[in-house]
Amino acid sequence: MKLRRIEVRDFRKLSHVVIDDLRDGLNVVVGDNEAGKSTLLAALRAALFERHRVGGEVAALMQPYGQTVRPEIWLNFDKDGASYRLHKAFCQRQEAELIGGGERWTGDAVEDKLADLFGFTPPGRGESKPDQHHGIFGLLWVEQGTSHRALSIGAGRNYLASALETELGQITGGDRGRALLEAAEMRHAEFWDKRGNPRGNFKALMVALEADQERHAFVEGQIRTLESRIVQLADLQAHLARYIREDTLKRSKDQVVAAEAATAKVAGIETEHKSAVSALQRAQLQRDAVGTRADAREALTRRLDLAASALKEAQHATEVAGAFQARLDAAAGAASEAASKARECQRLAAETAHQLEQALSRRQMSQGLLRLRDQLTAVEAADAAHRAALSVVDAISLKREDLGRLEGLRGLVDQSRARRDAASVHISLRPDGARVTRIEGLDDPVGEELTLSSDTTLALEGFGHIHIQPGGGIEQLVRGVSDAESALGDALVRLGQPDLASVRAALQRQADARSDAALQEKTVKVLAPDGIEPLRRQALQYEAQLASAIDGGDSADIEPGAVDAARRDADLKRSEAGAREANAKQGRAAADKARIDLAVLDERVAQATRDHGRLRDDIAAARLTLSDADLAADLTARDAELAAVAAAEAAARMTLAAADPEVARLALQKSRQAEAAIRDDIDKLERDRRDLDIELRALGKDGLGELLAELEGRIAYGERQLQTTMLEAGAAKLLFDQLSAAQRETKDRWLAPVRERSAPYLRLLQPDSTIVLHEDTLELHQIVRNGVREAFECLSIGAREQIAVITRLALADILRDAGRSSCVVLDDALVNTDEPRLDRMHLVLHKAAERQQILILTCRERDFLHLGAPIRRM
Amino acid sequence: MGFRFIHTADWQIGKPFGNVPGDAGSELRAQRLRTVERIANLARERRVDAVLIAGDAFDSNEVEDRTISRTLDALRSFEGPWIFLPGNHDAALVHSVWTRLRLLRPGENVIIADRPEPVPVWGGRAVILPAPLRRRREADDQTVWFDAAPSAEGTIRIGLAHGSVAGRLPGAADSANSIPETRADSARLDYLALGDWHGALQIAPRTWYSGTPETDRHRDNRSGFIHLVEIDGPGQPARVETISTGAYGWHQLEVEVLDGTGDPAIMALESLSTEPRRSVVSLRLRGAISLAERHNLTEALADWRNRLHHLEVDDFELFEDPTADDLDALDTGGFVRLAVDRLKAKAADAADPQAAAARVALRMMYLDHMKAKE
Fold this sequence. Notes:
The complex is a heterodimer.
Chain A: E1 2-11, E2 14-19, E3 26-30, H1 37-49, H2 56-62, E4 72-79, E5 82-89, E6 95-100, E7 103-106, H3 108-118, H4 130-133, H5 137-140, E8 141-142, H6 156-168, H7 174-191, H8 200-246, H9 248-395, H10 400-423, E9 425-428, E10 437-439, E11 449-452, E12 456-460, E13 464-468, H11 474-495, H12 500-527, H13 532-548, H14 560-625, H15 628-659, H16 661-701, H17 704-765, E14 769-773, E15 780-785, E16 788-791, H18 797-817, E17 824-827, H19 835-849, E18 854-858, H20 861-864, E19 871-873
Parallel strand pairs in A: 3-18, 3-19, 8-17, 17-18
Antiparallel strand pairs in A: 1-2, 1-4, 4-5, 5-6, 6-7, 9-11, 10-12, 12-13, 14-15, 15-16
Chain B: E1 3-8, H1 22-45, E2 50-53, H2 65-74, E3 82-84, H3 97-103, E4 110-112, E5 119-121, E6 126-131, H4 144-148, E7 156-162, E8 164-165, E9 178-179, H5 183-186, E10 191-195, E11 201-204, E12 207-209, E13 225-231, E14 238-244, E15 249-257, H6 263-270, E16 279-289, H7 291-307, E17 310-320, H8 324-330, H9 334-348, H10 355-373
Parallel strand pairs in B: 1-2, 2-3, 3-4, 6-7, 7-10, 8-9, 10-12, 15-16, 16-17
Antiparallel strand pairs in B: 1-13, 5-6, 11-12, 13-14
């Protein structure tokens, strides 16, 4: 396809633009920023891809801002040798017309024809999207600011793929190949997980087989145990059988019986010996008894002798002690007498001293009493005066405030009287002669000066009557006077006072009495600080003491020194008496001790007498029973008997030693133990046999043999299955790997044209570079520079836009060769490219333009002035 | 009328058939008991004087108690003597299936011949001389005592033993549990009833294997029978009737594919001697086959698997050999063709460890292709 002419009217910001005479090869359209070159590309897209009846926002966006007009586009292009003219009008009176190749289409048929011509899928409704609806143009028409991005192949992929396939023939395998690969992948996934480990049924088989093998080993172990138990059981039974066969137990029992008989015989000899021993013991005991008796008799005789001499000794000691005691008693009596005499002397001296003391005390007491009485009289007088003054104070109930209040009331009376008098009528009577004037109704004549405060009729002698009526509210003032007077009167009555002066006098009296009371109180305090009552009590006490004192004569003559002398004499006498008394006490004590000693000696004599008597009686009684001679004879006989019995015992002991009881005992013990051991062994064997039987029965019940056989079968089956499955799993893997590898290799060949076509362009820009597209997405994947692979995304923006433009040019070449030639539109696609590279890219564009039409939209006229292509300005 | 008895052996009750998965295996296991019931019924119907079991009535000494109990139940319809000889599978150890069976208190007609002692039957006119195995492998011939065993004049002497008759049986002979072929002569036996070999077979004069009454493995040895024997008197020849008792036919088929098609395999299956639902088949395939034929065969075998009681296929030696048509059907070009060519090369190269996998991979691809076509 080659564009020839573009006319746009009322499309967005373009009011009317015509770009014509578009040539094969390079064409440059220059428009300043905002001149609308990008809008031109949008108009191109709208003309080809938007349905003319499109509405809504898509249509609204075609309108110039704020206007409602009819955007129109005319497009002339050549395709497959035919010329076409396309006209579309949007929004209002929508219209579409395509004329070319001798035919004409209008309306929706235009869009269908365009889709057919260019091999794209128009949008069902709404806006078209470059990567979905613009077919190959989505790839080859690059909008401003997107050139450095990846190719956005999108829906162009199929066209591209089919173009590549066309070039390489049937190598790809087509849909059938893809389906087989998918199936192989599914098979592979059936057996293997992502990490290449078995999964699903394959894994389950392995796990189950392993479990069976483990179980088999376990059951085998159990069976081995079972078998070893059976062997044990057989051994046990063999042992038991031998015991039974050889009658071992019975033989052992016979040996026990024989040993028992031998032991019984030895036991008889032992019994005989034992009785000989006991006879010997008995004889010994009897002889010992008689011997003891003889010894006792001898001892008794000896003790009697001793008691007699002890008695004699005690009697002598008693006599000596009695004499000594009598002498001590006499000495004690003399000492006592001397002591009582000294005590009498002491008493007399003490008495004398006491009497002197008493007299002295009495004198001092009567002197004190006199003083006390004087003091008491003064105090009592002061106290009486104090109380009298207090009673005066208490008798007057008036208070200082009462006086104040009365004086206030008095003031009020005076005030009201003054007011009344001021308002009253003052009449001065100057009668001629001694004429009298009377107030009517009253007998007494009035004085010269008369003050009237009420209606008064005066009888003027010699004149007649004159009625005087004071005015100006005098009645009220009169009433005020009488009110004040009665208030004062009432107050006085309440206080019980005739007048104000008596009140003042009473208050003065009260004040005087109060000061007198204070004075008297102080006097009392000075004379009797502890009160009057203690003084009185002391006086009474002195009086009583004096009264009770024994009259010791006149005490007035006593010298104080006489008393001291008497006291010293009394002390001397007391110590003398003490010494005498101690002496007497010692004498008494010595006499007492001698008496006790004597009593002890007396008791000893009595005891010795008793002992001697008892022993004498004992020995007499003993001799009465058995005389000393008989006793001696008995002892001799017992000695002889003992000797005989001892000889018999010695004989029996020798017999026993000859019989050797130890041998018999050991033999019996051995035979019994042997029998018990055999019996125990048999019991144990029986028990073990029973236990084994039970154990075997329990083991056998589970059907281990069946289980083992079943497991063997299952393992054999499982192994066979696993073998098959492993083969299948391996085959699935192999199949998938082979198909994938084959496809990869094929694809590599498939992508080779891109490499080849881009190579001449790349050589102009940077030698030794290769472009690698992704084998599945056909997207720009890597660039190999000097053998080093670099991801497209990691390149600089400038490098990316250059590579992307070159790749597009290469793809356009491939498409052209596949019969799908198309115009390449680049809208400011190289803005990030530096000048040296831009020069190189101009060469690239020139080279590409040799084979296809390229439309460059740019705002940088300067950059393309030297491109050598016709420049059109908008 | 002479002494009449059933000679049977190798019941192998309790054999689990673990290698036959699912219901088919359970069914085979249960059938063994049903076959014993059938023998009991036959014994009653044919009014025999005794049933002799020449060893291996049980598959193992360690069968479940329940299995023993159900076996006793199966004997019930014949009330005459059942004389069981312990064999190598159920040897009379001190603790064995027999000691356990005794604990279950079987009827008095159940005789366990676990001692080398004569067992009188038929009212004393016949005597059974048993040679029980008391361990799994007896190094010495247990039938030696037969020769000197006394018996009253005019008594029929029947030997009962379990083992292999030295030098007479096909396959490798076991040195253990060996029985001399001359024992019937030397011991003046009228009949020597043997067990261990699972096929019915007369192996020496008056010396017989009855085989197992219900086949239990793939071996072409005429199994699935019992012997009904009648002997008129001492020194008289035995009349032996072989009666089929087996419910399942076991078939081992080996098919070689020569013409590149699976037809011979299908034909072999179609010509089985027993009806399919009573057939347990092991099919071994060999040869080369095209992918298309392989596909058809796989589907046909899937069908047969449903018809037969059990089908086990061993096709490790059946090689896929893709024909030009196969490959064209897959793809004539593109990467698929590349992969097919490589797989084919691998499959054809016997030295390649992945040769087998490559064959299966081709088969898989073909199958995927057929599926996609459908």
